[in-house]
Every structure is written in C-alpha cells, then in structure tokens.
Write a sequence for this structure.
C-alpha cells in the first residue's frame, strides 16, 4: 500500500485561521515537509502541537533534489504532509513538482483546505468575483513584465497578482500603461494581519500612492477589460489588439483570427485594417 501526500493550507496572517485538521495532520504525519522549518516551529508552538514525524525542509532551492526522496517515502507507505510559509502549497509556492511526481506513481494526494490570499483578496476587493484568473508573480524585468501584461490586456475576467512591496509601484505603473490608468483595482496589503489595508481605486491613482513606498505582503486585484460591442471597435483598435498579441509572441495569422473572434467581426475586416495600417506607415 502506498502512502498519502497531504497538502495543508497554513494561515496567511492570523494563526487563529488555521483549520483544526492542520493540527491533527502536523501531529500525526510520518514526514512533515516545510518551506521554512523555523516558521513551522513557530506555527506548531502556536497551535500547541509536536510533530511525531521527521521534519525536513522543502523549498525552491532543494525542491528538485528532495522530491524523489519524498516520493520514495510515499511509495513506501508514509503519510507526508506538505506545508508552506503561508497559504496553499503549489500556489506560487513549492509543491507542484511533488504533486506531479506523486500522481505519476499512483500515490493518493489530498488536501487540508485553508486560508488563501487569492480568494481573500478577491472577496474584499469590491471587484467582480464570478470569473477570475490568477496570474501569480509578474517577471522582474520591465520588458518581460510589459509583455506578460499585454498578453491579458483584453482579458474580461478579474485578474489577481502577487507582488513584492518594493516592486509594487513599477508594477502598478506598468498596469496603468497597458490596461489604462482608469481601470479599477485593489491593492490588498497584510491580509488578516494587524496592519491589514485594502486600497481601492483607478490604477493611475494606486500607482501614484505606491510610489511613496509600501510594506508588507501584497496581493493586487485588477478589474477585467470592459466588454465592447462590434460597433465600438474601429480599425485602429483592431490593429492595436493584433499588435498586442504579436508583441506577446503570437503569429499574425493567429492574432488576426483571435481578435476577429473576440470583436465579433469577420477576419477579413481585421486583415484589411492591419494591411491598411502597414501601408499608411510605409
């Protein structure tokens, strides 16, 4: 019989948010794999729990090397508990490699649901939550960051990002440039912690506010692109959308087809607009 891999959500701030099952799993697991063993120690002390099993580190630096070791433990029948510093393992945190490797070996994978900065930020943002997509952390380099944002410039769903505080001003400025400085957003800082703050407003205003300096754990929620009817989309806008997709790496043929589909117009109209724009710039 193979063992079980348990992914456990940990508090993103207030330790009282820890699910009751987390304490049970910490106490009973054969192996506890933690992103930071020092933080794990503080968590177990706060919960009044002493792990009976072996505690090992499992973080970005040793994830590739330690995964095979943990998989062998699982195949041998062990119950392995995976916890990260905050929130759910695998969500912009270590875990995906281990889950994929466990699934490949037919090991049972389950989870202890817990706090999530993504869902918490969505819930308090005041922005639509019926449809959303999580984009994680943006690239650090300015050019790569702009390219990634252009990929979702016409995304209708609400967007959720994680960001480091010292890069927040640059990120919000880039979002204002690509999405428009009037696009609504919410910057959620230190969620569930003592100095929790949710700053809502247009991207332009939020970028100016962040330029003064912001501290803490940051989650950014951005309103999706507004719906536009075919009658609102002129040739210049069609050309702009094609260029955005081309700059993101799409071939022109695919970009034209995608823009035509989302705009509700014939592909020939988009093609003609692109050709006309090319000739006008010649």
């Amino acid at each position: 019989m193979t063992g079980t891999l348990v992914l456990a959500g940990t508090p993103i701030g207030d330790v009282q948010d820890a699910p009751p099952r987390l304490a049970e799993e910490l106490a009973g697991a054969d192996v506890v794999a933690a992103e930071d063993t020092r933080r794990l120690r503080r968590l177990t002390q706060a919960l009044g729990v002493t792990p009976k099993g072996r505690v090992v580190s499992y973080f970005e630096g040793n994830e590739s090397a330690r995964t095979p070791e943990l998989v062998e433990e699982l195949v041998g029948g062990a119950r392995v508990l995976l916890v990260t510093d905050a929130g759910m393992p695998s969500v912009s945190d270590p875990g995906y490699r281990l889950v994929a490797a466990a699934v490949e070996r037919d090991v049972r994978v389950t989870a202890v649901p817990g706090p999530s900065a993504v869902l918490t930020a969505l819930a308090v943002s005041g922005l639509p939550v019926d449809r959303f997509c999580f984009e994680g952390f943006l690239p650090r380099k300015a050019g790569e960051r702009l390219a990634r944002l252009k990929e979702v410039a016409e995304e209708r769903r609400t967007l959720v990002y994680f960001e480091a505080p010292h890069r927040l001003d640059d990120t919000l400025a880039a979002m204002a440039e690509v999405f428009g400085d009037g696009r609504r957003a919410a910057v959620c800082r230190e969620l569930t912690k003592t100095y929790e703050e949710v700053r809502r407003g247009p991207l332009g205003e939020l970028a100016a506010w962040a330029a003064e300096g912001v501290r803490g754990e940051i989650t950014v929620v951005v309103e999706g692109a507004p719906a536009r009817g075919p009658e609102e989309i002129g040739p210049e806008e069609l050309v702009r959308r094609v260029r955005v997709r081309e700059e993101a790496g799409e071939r022109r043929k695919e970009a034209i087809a995608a823009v035509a589909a989302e705009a509700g117009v014939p592909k020939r109209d988009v093609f003609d607009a692109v050709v006309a724009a090319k000739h006008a710039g010649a």
The mean pLDDT is 93. The CA atoms of residues 242 and 259 lie 6 Å apart. Residues 267-281 form the longest helix (15 residues). The chain has eleven helices and ten strands.
